Amino acid sequence: LLSTNAFANMLMRPLEYAYKPSSVPVDAIVVLGGGMTPNTNDVSGKGNLGSYSANRLLTAVQLQRKLGVPIVFSGGKVFSDSGNEAEVADRVLRNLGVEASKIILDSEARNTAENALYTAKIADKHHFKNIYLVTSAFHMPRSMINFEKQIKGVDIIAYPCDYLTSPDNIINFFNLCPQFIGLEKSFLALHEYLGILALYIM
Length: 202
Prior knowledge:
alpha/beta; single chain
């Protein structure tokens, strides 16, 4: 059941559509890292952002071109054998034409709680009053709880992206067949629900 897209999408949709992208002006765009592969060949260096990170960064760059405000990328070295995600993101942002003066890096955060903790320090240093929080739609509810808990005096505005489901409930033969992608989505959704539960318990 967990490996069918039909069931996985039922788990995922409440997370992905809890928030809608906004259009209000902000002082900065905060984008959360979502994984990378170190020491792999890229256009101008070593290390590739994972699909979640890359999609989040693409959204952030589009917003930055529209608004002209700084991008804060939050994501460091999660494991001893992984690279530093912020360093790769910095290179990619520059390659995409974002000015160095518009890039602020948090290279320390290893999880969502630390994303919020270190972003709070950056927001205080730069006197940000309102920010877009850019992350994958399934990750947004847990991220908003973390950020609203740890950042005071700053308006956190959700800007979900990287959707894995359609808002339309489409049922067909393939959605009822067990597939790896269905199992992956079920895992991601359950991970988020358990993470949200833990935040309310702690």
